[in-house]
Amino acid sequence: MPSKDFDPPQKLPTADRAQWDLSIPATDWYDSLAAAGLRNPDVHGPARHWLQVEGSFTRALQSRCTNSFHVEVQHEGFAVPTLEEARHLNIPIRQRAWIREVRLCGDGTPWVLARTVIPLSCLEGRGRRLRHLGNRPLGAYLFSSPDWQRGPLETGLCQRTVQGQPEIARRSVFHHDDRKLLVGEYLLPVLYR
Ligand SMILES: C=C(O[C@@H]1C=C(C(=O)O)C=C[C@H]1O)C(=O)O
């Protein structure tokens, strides 16, 4: 799924390459949890709680931590979204966007992988801050402003290729006037099993 800019370097030592395997697989998206459940009933199991969190996902994860929560940036920069993402956001195909991939970690362990596609129109004015989030959670920005509203949640079923990758995901578009950005959150099994 990540565009070419995000391919792992070929010469990483084996231990580091294993880290890369904690990556986001191609995912099929469904309009509702019920629709995804027809393909994979696991979405109605313990993962369901996380698929339905309505407010800030960061906050929900923080409240599950015993000690600490942190965001680890994996890649951040201008890159070309997938065709499906560009269509979903209604932006020109092959137009670069700011793409941010992070791990949301609870008590030192990655719990969720997140991929956010931020089109150029969102990066103007106050939106310039979106390029400088670093390890601060995106949710703090989005939920601190009443201007940003979340659209409906979709449920994703991941085409897992490697042990440990996420199987289940959620995604939504946040919009502010005619600006839209796309946030995907991929649940790692350790979060709900
Ligand atoms: C959208 C939110 O932001 C969270 C933080 C992210 C980040 O820092 O890149 C990405 C996805 C999130 O789950 C949220 O807290 O709801």
UniProtKB/TrEMBL annotation:
It catalyses: chorismate = 4-hydroxybenzoate + pyruvate. It is found in: Cytoplasm. It comes from Marinobacter suaedae. Its EC number is 4.1.3.40. InterPro entries: Chorismate--pyruvate_lyase (IPR007440), Chorismate_lyase_/UTRA_dom_sf (IPR028978). GO terms for molecular function: chorismate lyase activity. Keywords: Cytoplasm, Lyase, Pyruvate, Ubiquinone biosynthesis. This is Probable chorismate pyruvate-lyase.
